[in-house]
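Shipment paperwork, digital attachment
Item: protein structure file
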Amino acid sequence: MPTINGNVKEKWTGTPLQNLLVTVNGSLVTRTNDQGQFSITAPNGTFRLCIVEETKAKSYEENCRNMMIVSDTTLNIEMTPVFRAL
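Attachment content:
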């Protein structure tokens, strides 16, 4: 099974985002580390990879994508901040 290494950063500043949940097909697999990185073993076939916050007061939009990976790969993921009116 292939390995996915990921780097998760804030879209506008490039700041690494730590402690975000990494899910595959809705199940928690891991969290991003203090450098915004994660590494998972991908399942065979098509799957849904999501990067989400655990808190209810979301600072970033959920980032999900349907994927089919056949070999080891690295993803660079940008998270878009959620803007709220004052």
